[in-house]
């Protein structure tokens, strides 16, 4: 089911509105509508925007506790003013991450990768080109085009390139998804499950994966060979991300640490943060007040949204959650308390690197309502702790504003229910978080770092349920995608 929803308020300046229309002219979406919605038949996981600037296209997978799961690709249809499914394919087990190929100038194949039981490379083809792509010859180029080399993505025995994709269940499907390669990080008959991946934007031949077997693996997609594999953590690795460039990446895991690696010197790694014990967290409140370049360290930050900030339905942001969410939060708090009592480190489950300013990254723990912003030049102590979601809520996702995002305009209203502010940040300064309190907040991190009295999100959105996935990328910088269970929503910011 796909629906379009009206804007919550009129736009402000005609010039600002005109700029947004120009930016959206390529894909046909009206920025004044503000919000479009799509509902999948199952819980959505692994959401990611395509990097193509000429279309509003997203890929995601199903989250079902069965062997057979699905990948879907949806696209905004200008004629129908809706998000419609254009392709569907089976995927073994739920995917843990889906990512489209980094944007490059000129034409390139519509490739994306998924992690789960293996690292898999897929190509999205239109039906008109399907016959030509169904069984590529050995000379047919694939990821090699993106890598700038002459190599090709050759299908492995797990995924023959000539295999036909599963037929879509929707007559609206106009594309097909073809398996191009399946890569295993072990020579055994099976490999440990992969928890995350990140495709390098600078050198698109490189892709790094994280695994529950404590390792990170850097792949050369052009040659389909492992470039390097290393034991990254003492326990499971839950997330991995590249910095700007092609040499440095970082990972987080169940041991509660953020570790940074440099491909030019893999003999050593840098631990830039470790989750503190409750006693250590209390002691840290007396830490120094200034970090690099005057950015205040804020271990005591307790950023709360004023109850007067309106949500999508007119209720105050931070209002009490449903009984279901309250019960879930109580269970999460009990589990966290048990781990703390046992002296265990709290796992760090997600890591997002600021590609506009690679000195900064953000991370959060399992069952936690705090997002910590780290400066790699000032290890060990967060420069900011964002704690604005409802008490007991758990952060599920976070994303930095991409390069190309121009920021908000004073008085301008974007998507329905998105409360604007007078803040005017942009790429590298804005961070969005989503949590189980059914809210997504956009934080002006730079302003918060300079002004200790500014302790509220610059924008707030009340979602129809727990915000579990977020995607905000350079290809479509003015549109934020989020999921709440089976619902996918895209918001114009």
From TrEMBL:
Annotated stretches, region: Disordered: 1-27, 134-173, 295-319
PROSITE patterns recorded: WD_REPEATS_2, WD_REPEATS_REGION
Domain of life of the organism encoding this protein: Eukaryota
Repeat region (WD), residues: 230-271
Record field: compositional bias (Low complexity): 1-17, 134-144, 155-173
UniProt keywords, alphabetically: Repeat, WD repeat
Pfam families: WD40
Protein name: Uncharacterized protein
Organism: Caulochytrium protostelioides
């Amino acid at each position: 089911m796909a629906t379009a929803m009206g804007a919550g308020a009129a736009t402000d300046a005609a010039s600002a509105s005109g700029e947004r229309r120009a930016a959206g002219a390529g894909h046909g979406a009206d920025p004044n509508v503000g919000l479009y919605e799509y509902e999948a038949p199952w819980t959505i996981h692994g959401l990611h925007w395509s990097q193509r600037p000429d279309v509003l296209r997203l890929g995601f997978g199903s989250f079902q506790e069965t062997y057979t799961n699905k990948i879907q690709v949806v696209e905004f249809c200008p004629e129908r003013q809706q998000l419609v499914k254009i392709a569907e394919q089976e995927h073994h087990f739920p995917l843990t991450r889906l990512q489209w190929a980094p944007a490059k100038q000129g034409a390139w194949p519509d490739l994306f990768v998924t992690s789960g039981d293996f690292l898999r490379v897929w190509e999205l083809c239109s039906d008109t080109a399907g016959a030509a792509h169904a069984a590529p010859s050995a000379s047919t180029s694939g990821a090699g085009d993106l890598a700038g080399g002459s190599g090709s993505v050759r299908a492995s025995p797990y995924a023959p390139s000539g295999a036909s994709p599963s037929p879509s269940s929707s007559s609206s499907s106009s594309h097909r998804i073809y398996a191009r390669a399946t890569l295993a990080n072990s020579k055994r008959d099976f490999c440990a499950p992969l928890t995350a991946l990140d495709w390098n934007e600078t050198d698109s031949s490189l892709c790094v994966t994280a695994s529950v077997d404590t390792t990170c693996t850097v792949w050369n997609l052009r040659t389909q060979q492992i470039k390097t594999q290393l034991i990254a953590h003492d326990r499971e690795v839950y997330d991995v991300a590249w910095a700007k460039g092609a040499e440095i990446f970082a990972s987080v895991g169940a041991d509660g640490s953020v570790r940074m690696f440099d491909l030019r010197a893999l003999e050593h790694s840098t631990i830039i943060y470790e989750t503190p014990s409750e006693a250590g967290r209390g002691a840290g409140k007396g830490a120094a007040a200034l970090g690099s370049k005057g950015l205040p360290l804020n271990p005591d930050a307790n950023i709360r949204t004023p109850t007067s900030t309106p949500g999508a339905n007119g209720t105050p942001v931070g209002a009490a959650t449903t009984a279901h969410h309250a019960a879930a939060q109580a269970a999460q708090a009990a589990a966290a308390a048990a781990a703390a009592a046992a002296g265990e480190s709290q796992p760090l489950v997600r890591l997002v690197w600021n590609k506009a300013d690679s000195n900064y990254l953000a991370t959060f723990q399992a069952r936690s309502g705090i997002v910590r912003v780290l400066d790699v030049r000032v290890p060990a102590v967060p420069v900011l702790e964002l704690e604005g979601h409802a008490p007991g809520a758990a952060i599920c996702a976070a994303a930095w504003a991409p390069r190309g995002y121009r920021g908000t305009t004073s008085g301008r209203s974007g998507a329905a229910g998105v409360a604007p502010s007078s803040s005017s940040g942009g790429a590298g300064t804005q961070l969005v978080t989503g949590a189980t309190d059914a809210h997504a907040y956009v934080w002006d991190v730079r302003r918060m770092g300079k002004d200790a009295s500014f302790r509220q999100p610059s924008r707030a959105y009340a979602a129809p349920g727990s915000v579990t996935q977020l995607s905000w990328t350079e290809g479509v910088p003015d549109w934020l995608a989020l999921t709440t269970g089976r619902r996918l929503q895209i918001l114009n910011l």
